[in-house]
Design a protein that fits this description.
Length: 733
Amino acid sequence: MRANASERPRPPADRRLAWRVTLALLFIGGSLLACGPNFPNMLLNQGDSAVMVAPVASFTAELERMQLVRPRFPTRLPVNGHAEQTLESELDDLSAALRQSSFPEPQIATLVKAHEQERRKLGALGKSIEDARLQPRVLEGLPPEFADYFRGSIAWHLGKIDDATAAWENLLQRPAGERHFKSTWAAFMLGRTESTAPSPNWNRAITRFQEVRQLVTEGYADSPGLAASSIGWEAQAHLKSGNYARALELYLEQASGNDPSAIVSLQWTAERALNQDRATLAPLASNAKVQSVMTAYVISSMSGTEVAGVPFGPVARWLEAVEAAGVRDVASAERLALAAYQSGRMDLARRWIQRAPPGSIAARWLQAKLHLFDGELADAAALLSRVVRDFQAGDDVARNKPTNSLAASLFISTEGAIESSISAPNQILGELGVLRLAQRDYTEALDALLRSGFWVDAAYVAERILSVEELQAYVDRHWSAPPADESAKAEPRFWIGPETPGQTRTALRHLLARRLARQGFPQAALAYFPEVWRDWFQTLQNSLEQARNMDQPKEIRATAWFEAAKLTRKFGLELYGTEVGPDWNVYEGNYTYGITIESRIELPPQSILAPRSEELERARGNHPEPEKRFHYRYTAAALAMQAANLLPDNHDETARILCIAGSWLKNRDPIAADAYYKALVRRCRKTALGAEADRLRWFPRIDANGKLLPPVQPPKARPNAPDQPNINLVHLD
């Protein structure tokens, strides 16, 4: 049954204001989960924030998608470090220069090798050198441009900056035909010298770095890729001098050449620019490329976001600057809508959504969130359903594939979960599942949560909300058993939650099998068990069938009851256990974190996605018996009691069964175990186990087969040791 639009009226203004503050805290944190040991992502314990959470963009993916510039110069990334790459480039250039001068090959090899030895001595300069042989020297026979450059390098490493500058300037004053190989090197080092001086001259540094690229354009050699490197160095000079726009343009060009350091530089520059005043931001907003980079950074970091709706803070100033600049292009609209939504400026988000392309998945996703913000559940669900279909079909602006859209780079940041983030397609489909649950479309909610990878949420709906008939019909319709040859190829165990369609099929059918078994439909359950558990479940059913056969002698029936009890205790989690609470098979029984009826009830009642009364009634009705942690242990103990009831009093086997069954419960639930202790003492006091239980006033120590173990003795005092205090020994099986 669908919820109509009038079921949940638009929330009053004071409630919407409270939502804004709550959402602000959510957007700043960017987290869906508290910390925990590899817990999976969940939605149904988050209330409205599960759907209202702001997505975040991938900065790198956005830059690659927008392709704002194309690289002009190739980037050479070092393989063995910058020093080795520089040395290799110089030696290669030297060999080429000597060959052009018609040097004989044997002499070329000798001179190159000798120069390499001198070149490697540069690393020791500036340190205490007593041996003159370790001082680098310019060799006879080096081409003049190599000699000039090496003299400058020696002086630079010795801290003699004026001498280094003079040597490199002398190189650049040589005739063009005499400085083909080292001109770019000299110009680059002159730029670095200006940048790293105690009082940097940024204008001269910028001129030198531009000269490097001009020389390369004119045909001078650039074996180490200095033209590409000069872009980043010039960008740094502009940044230091306060020209953020030019710095961002250059870092963007550097990034287009696949230099990974440029991405960090762009983020650092954008962060600094965001914290400037409005006058500084204005020209950045007016520059199309720079505005795109800045907005991409804002939506990928949510840097500086303040309390939602408060018109101050770096992001708010940026949005105001963009508005003032009159930006209207549709390519920017969806990104700016996201930035506004992230900062809690719903009014701005609405305006930018209206300017976005009609087919924008990101804009319509945000619009669905705004519908929910306004209390319009039905509209939010309808729009989100269309977004899901379009994303799955590959629709977006001009029928482009989603991989070319903003939505493809969006994700939800998480903490304490298996995945560090949730992809946009999974989050959107998961949000639709949350809305379907609120609309009481329970089967559709299960399908959306299941296919979006929110396994714990899906398991809660499958176990506690759907009736067993509804669940079985859904599984048969959408997740029927695979062919025999396919099912024989068992996939590895997943942790935590299924990750592939095959694992999802197996996990869901196993969940249904256990639920059918708990509700007394063993024959129906058998078909849904994974092959690895099917034989064990059949063995258990055979024991139960023999135990219930009144034509069999009591001893045989008792043995069958106890065999069934032991199987239930050993394999109960896999044969009867719940996927979520109270048994938590999803964590192999090790943890108790996830979606429960209690966690649903604890959601704020004013939340538009708070559980309806029908959901809670279903959840209360679909529970295991008893609804206690490891409930199958109680079932196993009850089966053992059936066995003991068929055996005579003061019989060793009777005592053994009662002692074992009580030991299954004594540590976790002493009150439930007390019934087995009293039966043991009352019925079997004359046996060894019963007598020891009577003496201890509790269960005695037994081994795995129920054989009485001797009491634990306190450790003996060591010779000449001081008196030991009394030790209260408590044995816990």
